[in-house]
Structure formats: C-alpha cells, structure tokens
Amino acid sequence: NAGVTQTPKFQVLKTGQSMTLQCAQDMNHEYMSWYRQDPGMGLRLIHYSVGAGITDQGEVPNGYNVSRSTTEDFPLRLLSAAPSQTSVYFCASSYSGYRSYNEQFFGPGTRLTVL
Amino acid sequence: DAKTTQPNSMESNEEEPVHLPCNHSTISGTDYIHWYRQLPSQGPEYVIHGLTSNVNNRMASLAIAEDRKSSTLILHRATLRDAAVYYCILFSGYALNFGKGTSLLVTP
Predict the structure, then answer these.
(1) Quick check: B94 contacting A, CB < 8 Å?
(2) Whether the Cβ atoms of residue A12 and residue A113 lie closer than 8 Å to each other
(3) Contact B32 A99 (CB under 8 A)
(4) Chain B: nearest CA to A46, how far in angstroms?
(5) Is there a contact between A106 and B45 if contact means CB atoms under 8 Å apart?
(6) What is the pLDDT confidence band of residue A84, given thresholds at 50, 70 and 90?
(7) For residue B18, which of B4, B12, B54, B73 is within the disulfide window of CB 3.0 to 4.6 Å?
(8) Residues near B63 by beta carbon (within 8 Å), at least 6 away in sequence
(9) Residues 6 or more apart from A57 whose CB is under 8 A from it?
(10) Smallest Cα–Cα separation from B105: which of B75, B71, B80, B87?
(11) What is the average pLDDT value for chain B, to the nearest integer?
(12) Which residue of A has its CA nearest to B88?
C-alpha cells in the first residue's frame, strides 16, 4: 500500500491564483480530512469527508473548497490564494471518523507559499 | 472541546525511558486519549491511544490516571529517532484537536 499520497510537495502561487492540492489513499478508508499547519503551531482542520459525496467544514474552511467523488480521492481547492494561506497542508484518512478509536494516517504534506 | 495541557519541551538521554505528561481535566466519558508525534518535516504519525486502561504497543505505553484527568506517554528506551513533537489529543467528533505539543529532544 502507498498509504496517503499528496501532490505536489511544494508550490508557489501568486495572490489571486487558484490551484488544487491532490490527496489520495489506497486503504479504502471512509474518512478523509485536510489540515493546515502554520509555523510553530499545531494542525487545524479545514474540511473533512465521512464518505464519497459527503463533506463538511472544519475549524478554518474559509477560502477552500472540497469534494469527494470517489473513496480514494479528496482534493482541496484554493479559490483565490492569499498570503494568509501560506502553510503546510496535510491530508489524513482513517477507516472511520466519528468518535473513532481508529488511528489516522497522514500524508507527507504540501508546502504552499503565496506571494 | 476538551483541551489538553502539555509541557512545551522535554529533554532525554538516549536509551533512557521518557515520560511525557498530559493533563486533560475536562475530559468527557467518551473521549479517547490519542497520542501522535511529528518528526521534523513529516506528517503526524499515530503512536497510541486508550480510553480507561493502560495500553502497550510496539512503540510506547500509555498510562491513564484512574480519574482520566491525566495521562503519560512512556517511551521505554529513547533513541535519536524519537526526537519529535508529541501531541496528546482528546478525540472528539471528527477532528483531532492538535495543540502545540511537547518537543522532545534526545541527546546522545
């Protein structure tokens, strides 16, 4: 199993540009999520999905869109990039999410810089 | 959401045991206690979790106080590869609520 994969590893954008961060998992996990980590801080939840066709907002959803058309993929779209979105983005998945004792598996992250 | 309190940093010598404390006085009865760690420039990695009883796995042990208001992650023999930020998290709803964690320094 490849686990959770994320592309690209690094990205530089100009203010106002849009882009999609890709996330895929091959473990047939129901639950997938996106976090962002700012320097010296813990991770904060952006959006999550409990299954194909179902998504919901996390703690910091503004400026981001998600969709979940397949079990395997959970892309994160930046609609109009802003310098405040400069961060490291992590995708995670687990067998199930709600009040779960299941461990979550994290991808290697995408380091995004918005100029 | 229930919160956790951890020391900002701790230091250990290589091959010695490490006890990482966590206070969670507002824990609810259904909250699982999870520990994750994050090595430099990597995504978080699951370490261990528990509800009421102490737990052991190949990576670590988790000791949970009888009143569940605190817990301790135990690394039995620290190695240089264990240098990381360790997060104590109460699993509530769909989100892992990461705080700032404890930065563990392991010295040879």
Answers:
(1) yes
(2) yes
(3) yes
(4) 10
(5) yes
(6) very high
(7) B12
(8) B54, B71, B72, B74
(9) A47
(10) B80
(11) 93
(12) A42
Residue A34 has pLDDT above 70, yes or no: yes
Residues contacting residue A39 through CB under 8 Å, at least 6 positions apart: none
pLDDT tens string A4-29: 999 999 999 999 999 999 999 999 99
Beta strand residue intervals within chain B, DSSP E = 9-13, 18-23, 32-38, 45-50, 55-56, 61-64, 70-75, 84-91, 102-107
| Other beta carbons less than 10 A from residue B4's beta carbon | 21
Mean pLDDT of B36-44: 94
Q: Among A44, A36, A17, A43, which residue's Cα sits nearest to residue A86?
A: A36
Question: For residues B38 and B32, what is the distance between their CA atoms, to the nearest angstrom?
Answer: 19
The pLDDT assigned to A11 comes to 97
Across residues B7-23, what is the average pLDDT?
Answer: 97
Residues of chain A whose beta carbon is less than 8 angstroms from a beta carbon of chain B are 4, 31, 33, 35, 40-45, 48, 50, 56, 58-59, 90, 92, 97-101, 103-109
Provide, as residue numbers in chain A, all residues whose Cβ is less than 8 Å from the Cβ of B64: none
| Beta-ladder partners of A23 | A6
Are residues B93 and A99, on separate chains, in Cβ contact within 8 Å? yes
